[in-house]
Design a protein that fits this description.
89% of the residues lie in helices and 0% in strands. By secondary structure, the chain is mainly α.
Length: 85
């Protein structure tokens, strides 16, 4: 969803493309620092992931869905409260 919002803002010129080019260049230059720790952790805990991967997946899925639901309710409540004012 964040990518769609970013694309919309860039398409409507709310966020200048030149600004994003500089940020993207910095991220691409340092991308290895973002992904190496993930791969090291997966390698170190591969036995644990193989053994308990499915329960971990469902735990992440349930927490993701509950976060979406709570966010929707809070957003709806906020919109209703602002409409009353």
């Amino acid at each position: 969803m964040g990518m769609f919002l970013m694309a919309f803002c860039m398409g409507t010129k709310i966020i200048p493309i030149k600004l994003m080019e500089n940020v993207c260049a910095l991220i691409l230059k340092n991308m290895v620092f973002f992904f190496v720790p993930i791969f090291v952790a997966v390698y170190l805990y591969k036995d644990l992931i193989a053994e308990k991967g499915l329960p971990m997946f469902f735990a992440v899925l349930i927490s993701w869905i509950s976060t979406l639901i709570v966010t929707a309710f809070v957003t709806d409540l906020t919109i209703k409260l602002k409409a009353k004012k």
